[in-house]
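Known limitations

Structure tokens in this collection are predictions and should be treated as such. Users comparing against experimental data should check residue numbering before alignment. To illustrate the layout, the record for Probable Fe(2+)-trafficking protein is reproduced below. The input appears on top and the generated tokens appear beneath it.
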Amino acid sequence: MSRMVFCQNLKKETEGLRFQLYPGDVGKRIFDNISQEAWTNWQKKQTMLINEHKMNMMNPDDRAILEKHMINYLFEGIEPKIEGYVPEKK
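Generated tokens:
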């Protein structure tokens, strides 16, 4: 049986993550409040951001910028600005 959460990103009850994928308090908040679907959507955007901005995940500044985008996207519904990408209309 899957774990259900009320996803703060999708604004509906849906399947949650199977385990905490991100460390610390932010990871716990994501695990408790974000669905598998929303996390998968974020991962696609994360890849585009890393590639577009040529981010180095060994660089703490790049990780901090990415985390800020992640929190804004997952919890505030703020789309990251990615050159040439137009999000689908909901």
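For this record: Residues 9 and 74 are 5 Å apart (CA to CA). The two ends are 29 Å apart (CA to CA). Please report discrepancies through the issue tracker.
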